[in-house]
Write the structure tokens for this entry.
Amino acid sequence: MCKDCGCEEGNARAYFDGKAHEHDHDHEHDHDHAHDHEHDHAHVHADDGHVHVHVHLHLHGATVGHDHVHVYAHDDEHEHDHPHAHEHFHAHPHEHAHPHEPSHEPEHDTPRARTVQVEERVLAKNDQAAAVNRTWLDERGVLTVNLISSPGSGKTELLVQTLKRLHGRLPAAVVVGDQQTDNDARRLAGHGAPVRQIETQAACHLNATQVGEVLPEVVPPGTRLLFVENVGNLVCPAAFDLGEHFKIAVLSVTEGEDKPLKYPVLFSDAPVAVVTKVDLLPHLDVRLETIRANLKRVRPDVTIFEVSARTSVGMDVWVEYLESAVARGF
Amino acid sequence: MHELSIAVALVAQVQEVAARENATRVLRVVVVAGRLSGVEPDALHFAWPLAAEDTIAAHAELVVEALPLTLSCRACGVSAEADEPFPICEACGSVDVDVGAARDLRLRSIDLE
């Protein structure tokens, strides 16, 4: 008889390695009453040379015989009856030690393992936050674009030169993300647009919650265009909707003609691409036609702008596009 | 590595379901990653134990199923599995395609007790 719970299992004492098995009872029962029912509890016993771990369901109210579920800790599963009936009182918690899974705690009054179908996007929370942002921006008529590129592609300088040209023509705002520093925000400030820096610390991308937190302060009434300059990274930002209306991929001529092919997740999701630093082309063996072809291969309907923020080449066309996009509505 | 952000979001999602189901333990988590989801299964496997540590999902097995990219073209009506991870109809070249769940990372199911 188990000294702790008083269960009498007839001849089925638990042995393992020749030693009598003792167990502490470690489940929660608010039983301060005796109850008549026949049940077993989880125990280990050696039988026919096999060691079994049995998990039994308590059938409260059953008075004759009992069913139980066997959970086998090893491969050969077979049923056998336990020719014993007993009463026992659970007055205290217990736990079972047994040889197979030290971390396993057998269940007593809990249901067995089951599968719950979920079918929900893992980034559902980010998506929801993004949707809230998008609604907020739509309600205020703010066209919002998410600029994604590798570090050093010229996003910030492109934006500085863009803001200078929009100043007095179209009210804009900028949210910029970097792991550390507000260097970009400082460069972007002073060109007529409110700017807010988000330091992501260890994160390699902005998320919708971060952007949502700064929107009210950085997008004053009357703003028509919001640029979100993402953390320099061609991989991760593509997976995180921020609430923008569309993504803009930025790619400098020094990064290689095949960049779009290497990062299809981003480039296929960006209806606009800006190729930057075209003033450096004479120093490179890169062909603009090849870059264009690769951009189109991954996104056949892409709109491409080729610019130099430094020399102003292509900047007027780019800015006109932005103004018409805002005017077109969305 | 954004798979860690994703693993953290996944653990939070699993915890919510487990709480709703009054579960005491999570045994298995099945996730489906579309080909355009930007999630690399190996990286997610790597990040998972870090994110799940000290939670109800700490010893759960993570299963990541990779979905093939099936494109349904709205222009020509062809539906086919794409070889390359580009959402372009291989029959007619149109980008007016439905990528289905290809951009999704989805928590399919949880085994718990």
In short: Chain A touches chain B at residues 103, 107, 110-126, 203-205, 207, 235-236, 238-240, 264-265, 268-269, 297-301 (CB under 8 Å).
